Amino acid sequence: MDDTLFDLPFFEDSHRELARELTTWARDNYRDRVHRGNVDDVCRARIAALAQAGWLRYCVPGNAGGALAKLDSRSLCLIRQILSYHDGLADFSFAMQGLGSGPLSLFGSAELQAQYLPDVAQGRLIAAFALSEPDAGSDAAAMTTRAVRHGDKYHLHGIKTWISNAGIADFYTVFARTENDAVDGVTAFVVNANTPGLTVSERFEVCAPHPIGTLTFDDCVIDASQRLGEPGQGFKVAMQTLDVFRASVGATALGFAQAAADMAMDRAQQRPMFGATLADQQITQAAIGDMHTDIHASALLIYRAAWQRDVLGQRTTKSAAMAKMFATEAAQKVIDRNVQIHGGLGVKVGHPAEMLYREIRALRIYEGATEIQQVVIARETMREHARGDNT
Ligand SMILES: Cc1cc2nc3c(=O)[nH]c(=O)nc-3n(C[C@H](O)[C@H](O)[C@H](O)COP(=O)(O)OP(=O)(O)OC[C@H]3O[C@@H](n4cnc5c(N)ncnc54)[C@H](O)[C@@H]3O)c2cc1C
Fold first, then answer.
1. Strand blocks (E) in 165-197
2. E strand or H helix at 305, and its extent?
3. 54 and 99 belong to one structural domain
4. 81 and 301 in contact (C-beta within 8 Å)?
5. Is the dihedral of CA 251, 79, 215, 33 positive or negative?
6. What's the CATH code of the domain at 10?
């Protein structure tokens, strides 16, 4: 792995130390990125190991047993980059603990934080984030799941789908319509998986398997104290959580791309071809040049966005969208080139190059598809232009 990226000026020395320690730990713990066996069991084991080594403590703030006082975007990105370089499911397990509990860290009452977050950091509770619905994906505001208030209880009705960790999660952060049909009529709740009226109504497989499925809420009654933030603040909760984690999706893509680039280099230098090696062919060198430039450009965008949030304390709507979009699209190209360099081996089921090819694809769709990021970047830029920021 090209660790010169950790020299970027966006990092403190503590980040470089974190990167060094995690790299050593991941190298010792993950030898083969192609996992076998039941995916639920694999993910539970990943969570237990990440908790035991202390890495999950970066998913929650210091007052709830976290490693640092506040969620630190650069640490989250570094951890995801390094885990995804070695093992996609380790990164997935880490990310979902953070994303599923992020709304609690940012908006939960002191009681809710104390009740859930220390157990998230210790791997005793598994978290999930339930925003998407069958007819409300990219257009999340079209959600129809409702939470109707009766006294100090809310009654939930509706369906959430594409929910990662469905079936193994102990609790779900759920977004439901409480007030009206406007964007600001959505409220966030934390719902325990064993609440009567909540069922995992479907499990399905995606091309890079992880636990995922559909939740049905059929008069699922929860206490009003399970609400996150104020009524009608649900979109703010979702968007501020995604603000923290969006750049980290780019970091996962970066780790995948680095794994592919290293694999490509090993193969190209070893593969005899036309009296030399594959790496000696200039067309291969053009590919290697492009792959590494894409990797460095991705790192710059990701860590700029993370630094802006951590150090400047700014909203990173535009820079995180750029980082997520560029890094995931670039990683797809890098990973495809790695398959090409491997020839037939690159499409052999169970080969790490083929595994990466499956692992990267969904990143261009979830947490805002590339087209959504394009629109976000354009709208922010038009707003800046109208304010005269760019003239
Ligand atoms: C592996 C995986 C894990 C996921 N995990 C979770 C989770 O844990 N929790 C959760 O809540 N959700 C999760 N999701 C859901 C994810 O967020 C949605 O899939 C995503 O928001 C896209 O919604 P959709 O699938 O309904 O596609 P649609 O909304 O139907 O979009 C289809 C396509 O339309 C295009 N598009 C979108 N907007 C525009 C536009 N303005 N102009 C032109 N084209 C456009 C994009 O290419 C997009 O891919 C997951 C999805 C996947 C695949």
1. 171-177, 186-192
2. helix 282-310
3. yes
4. no
5. positive
6. 1.10.540.10
Query: For atom 43 of ligand 1, which residue has the closest CA?
Result: 371
pTM of the model: 0.97
**Residue 249 CA to ligand 1 centre (angstroms):** 14
pLDDT in tens, the chain (391 residues): 888 899 999 999 999 999 999 999 999 999 888 888 899 999 999 999 999 999 999 999 999 999 999 999 999 999 999 999 999 999 999 999 999 999 999 999 999 999 999 999 999 999 999 999 999 999 999 999 999 999 999 999 999 999 999 999 999 999 999 976 666 799 999 999 999 999 999 999 999 999 999 999 999 999 999 999 999 999 999 989 988 899 999 999 999 999 999 999 999 999 999 999 999 999 999 999 999 999 999 999 999 999 999 999 988 999 999 999 999 999 999 999 999 999 999 999 999 999 999 999 999 999 999 999 999 999 999 999 999 876 5
For the chain, what is the domain count? 3
Annotated catalytic residue 367: yes
The HSE-up count of residue 272 (CA atoms within 13 Å, CB side) is: 1
Return all residues near 200 (Cβ < 8 A) that are at least 6 apart: 166, 167, 213, 214, 215
Pairing between strand 127-130 and 171-177?
A: parallel
> Closest ligand 1 atom, CA of 128?
8
Any idea of the CA torsion for 310, 11, 17, 59, to the nearest 10 degrees?
A: 20
Nearest CA to 133 among 194, 177, 79, 87? 177
Shared domain for 251 and 383, answered yes or no, is yes
Distance of CA 49 to the CA centre of its chain: 19
Domain that holds residue 269: 236-387
| Cβ 334 vs Cβ 260: under 8 Å | yes
Catalytic residue among 133, 354, 359, 367: 367
97 and 154 part of one domain: no
Residue type, 170: D
Last residue of a domain, one of 126, 154, 180: 126
Q: Which residues contact 386 (CB under 8 A, 6 or more apart)?
A: none
Q: Are residues 121 and 132 in the same domain?
A: no
| Ligand 1, CB cutoff 6 Å, lining residues | 129-132, 137-138, 162-164, 206, 212, 362, 365-366, 369, 371-372, 375
Which residue has its alpha carbon closest to ligand 1 atom 26? 137
